[in-house]
Every structure is written in structure tokens, then in C-alpha cells.
Amino acid sequence: MTEFLETTVDKFIFRVATDRFYNGEGVWAKEENGRVRIGLSDFVQQRSGDVAFAEIKPVGTSLAFGDEVAVIETIKVNIAFTSPVTGNVVEINPAMVEAPEAINQDPFGEGWLAVIESEDWAADRARLLDPQAYFAHMKIEAEEEAKKL
Amino acid sequence: MSAMIQSGNGQKVVIVPCSGIGKTYGTVSREAAYDLTEDLRPGNAQLVPLSLLVLGDEAARNAVAANPAITIDGCKLACATKMVQESGGTVAQDFAVLDVYRRYRQFKPQSISELNEGGVQLARALAEEAAEIVDQLIAGGQNG
Can you tell me the ipTM of this complex? Predict the structure, then answer.
């Protein structure tokens, strides 16, 4: 069962799942038997707003760490996210076509974006933030956002 | 969207939009309700403010209890739909602005106090869809 780090900033509660790694944009990566499932953090989905559309690189796409892997469109913004993994896209979440609000409803679960066949997960992981480091990074970002309200 | 029901006796259809302030989708929902009740189907569609239902206003509660309702929600909280149901009304059709936007991606709404052209067009598209539902409900009532 996934455990979370949690913080409250202003009236918002943000959670960070502790069983995965993160890039600085808030894209999480969770290794599963040699493959890596990716998605967006709770903070990213709350900051972005209700997701109207999500476009994920199709199955078969070869990605390097840092390549664009997904674009989401909300009422507020269009945001491109980069891959936290080098490898090939082997699966994309079918919910992203018909019900991308899954990103908002369950960012660490049903709202995952894609599964990537990793070429060298150990090397990628070394470039990512562990949950505690991302939690600290996210808190700073959240506090900056709160100042704008 | 929920399953549609028939109005039963040809009465008016009540329209309950989101009352969220400071959100673009909320503004779209209200603009669509105005389009529907003032321009497209003024004779058959009646606007009922969500705030009156929240306050327990007797006339508003009676209106939703006696007529089928179309709700237009601005976000996933679906306050309009929930409030109609809690007021003893029956939701004939519930629209979520986000879902409607997905069908009309070319109409991207922006701004809040005054919608951009995309928002105005999205509201109109939503109102036209709702007008068809009003027609079906009224026709169903007359036939029933």
C-alpha cells in the first residue's frame, strides 16, 4: 500500500507518494519489473487545474531522459512534461483519451500516463529526486504559488 | 451525463447553473443558462439560481420539485446537480462544462468576468445542446 508525505499550504493539501522517484517538473517514475510507469504528482495536478486533454507520446516512441513525453491542457495552461526515463513507450493509459480527469482524481494511481521500457533505470534513477527531496522541492514551489493568491 | 427523463405534463424545464465565482467554467455555465432561458427557449426554460436552492427558498424549491431540471456544473463538485437532488428535484440532464469543452475544443474559454470569444461560443454550444433536451422534455410531456 502506497504511503504518502503530506503538507498543507494555504488551504491546499499536497501529497507525495513515497514509493517512486520524481523529476523537478513533478513527473513521477515507478519501477515495475524492469518497466517504469510514469505520471504526474498531486501538486502538479492541483496547480494545473482540471485536465481537459492529455496527449501522450504513442507506443513505440523512443525517448531520452528529458524528451517531451506528454502535454496536458487545462483551463489555465498547456504544459509539456519531460520523460524521467530513457527508453521506449510500451503502453499509454487508455483513460487519457476519454477521461483524462483521472489525472486529477487519482494522480498516483489510475491517472498514470505511460509505461516505458527502461534502457538503464539505475542511471535514470540517479538523476531523479527521491520522495523526500521532491517533497521539499514541491513545498517551496507550493509556497511560491500561495503567495500569488 | 445522466439518463434523461420526460417532463410528464409539458411544464417548464428549470435550468440550474453553477454559482462558482472566480472560475472560467462557472462563467461559461451561467452564460449558457442565460442564452438558453433568454434567447433560445425563453418560453420553456426557467432559470433557478443555485444560491436560492442553497438558502432553501420556497419558490425555488417548488420550481425544481415540480419540473424536470437541467443542471450545468462548472466543476467536478457538481454543486448544481447535488443541490437540485437535495431540494427534491429530478435532474433530467446534467452538463459539465469540462465535458462540453472536450466536444468543442476549438472554443477555448478564457477570462472570468468577461468571457473571450471562445468562451462565448462554448456557452452558446452548450446552450444549444441543452435546448434540444428542453425540446425533448417538453415534447415528452405533451405526448405523455
Answer: 0.73
